[in-house]
Amino acid sequence: MPETARPTSLSPRFNALPSAFPWTGWRRSAALAIGMASAALTCPGSALAQSAQQIRWCNNEDQATSDQAIGGCTAIIKSGQFSRSDLAIAYTNRGSAYDEKGDQDSAIADHDQAIRIDPKLHLSYNNRANAYGRKGDIDRAMADYDRAIKLNPRFFEAYNNRGTTWRDDRHDSKRAIADYDKAIGLNPKYADAYNNRGIAYDNLGDHDRAMADYSSAIRLDPKMARAWNNRGLQHHAKRDYAAATADFDVAIAIDPGYANAYRNRGSTYIQTLAYDRAIADFDKALTIKPDDTQAFLSRGIAYSKVGDYDRAIADYDKVVAASPRDAGALSNRGYARFYKGDFAGAVADLSPIPASETYPYTALFQFLAQARAAQPTIDLAPLAARMSNQAWPSAVVEFYLGRRDADATLAAAKSDDERCEAQFYVGEWQLAQGQRDAARRLLEDAAANCPKTFIEYTGAKAELQRLRP
């Protein structure tokens, strides 16, 4: 799926101290740095004794870790040398650091304190909203974003963050787009809002606008790896695999630790039949992100395509262990077991898939696996009743129900892809009936004519391997 930054936690900028110990920048969130107007500093001269390093860490300079930022801000708070407004800023900075560590309760407590000290510090409402959102308290998050925007109607970052909450938590991409529009209107150079609006357009199926927004984000911030990745996904969806690969290449060059970009490029390599490259990319993704079930699922597909069914099944096992009812993992593991000749194992995987998540091809493979394992076959009549007589592969379903013969089934195919599928499914049924020679001829045709990404191509190749004298 497209990549977005987490809602941005922001910290105000202090004016420079006389001894050139400036507070600068914003707390970073998901590698996003934002600048804003300075807050007034009213601390007495004794504040100069405060450690310059602690000040810089609290302000997230010098690539400060969250722990360093917390330590720096804590020193500022305990010093007793800063004005109330400055203390409010230190509390909200520390709250943002706690949020980055995943300690949302401490983050909220610090933002609460900042708001008690300075009820008009709009940044604290934005930052507390982020913490509430990560805790799943969306109502409070939205209320805080609203308050931040009311206090500062030109607060474009808060519009962006509220838009992401509309999109991801309220599942309302239209209202999200309205907020992203407002953020972009206030700051036309705000790359993150373009990237986020692109995701919202993608959710609505408006892929051209999504592509345009990702391109705008890239133009404004050529180092935004997320935008390159997201545009690559759009190219992939349009089957422009060369352009998709080129965008994933850039995302990885910018961020060599970007696991999802490796996974997405690997999926694109599958489409171009570069299976070895795909497996290498999935290996890299899993080295960075060992619990990425999507990478295991995709690598399993690549292993199946090169005939390494045992490794494919091992990868699908990882996904099923994490999510026992994952229909994609169960169906793909069922296919791999079918290719391997473990028809009983294929039945075990394909049978539990809920009817709502079963599409005709899964049902057809289950039917064939049961026939090959000498088990009672499922009743395909309900599937036939749900399908239009004109919809493919209704002809194959009717063939398995005995409502048409092999010749009529083959003749019903109206395209090359449908014809190769018909050859496979009729050949498989003939094989289940012991008609090996007739089956071999049709399976050879299917292997010659099916696109190599089709499950029928892989199935035909596996069967022909077993049929060798």
Protein model, in words:
With 469 residues, the protein is mainly α. Among the domains are: 91 residues, Tetratricopeptide repeat domain (Serine Threonine Protein Phosphatase 5, Tetratricopeptide repeat, Alpha Horseshoe), CATH 1.25.40; 50 residues; 91 residues. The chain is 67% helix and 1% strand. The chain has 25 helices and two strands. A two-stranded parallel ribbon has the order 1-2. The radius of gyration is 29 Å and the shape is elongated. About 8% of the residues have low confidence.
Strands side by side in the biggest sheet: 1-2
Average of pLDDT: 89
The count of β-strands is: 2
Helix-strand category: mainly alpha
Following the backbone from N to C, one meets helices and strands in this order, namely EEHHHHHHHHHHHHHHHHHHHHHHHHH
Strand fraction: under 5%
CATH superfamily of the domain at 222-312: Tetratricopeptide repeat domain
**Biggest β-sheet: count, sense, barrel?**
2 strands, parallel
Please compute the radius of gyration using only Cα atoms.
29 Å
**Percentage of residues in helical conformation:** 55-70%
Shape summary: elongated
- Briefly note the CATH topology name of the domain at 222-312: Serine Threonine Protein Phosphatase 5, Tetratricopeptide repeat
The assigned CATH architecture of the domain at 222-312 is Alpha Horseshoe
- What is the overall number of helices? 25
Query: Would you identify the regions where 5 or more consecutive residues have pLDDT less than 50?
Result: 11-49
The termini sit apart by 46 Å
The CATH class name of the domain at 222-312 reads Mainly Alpha
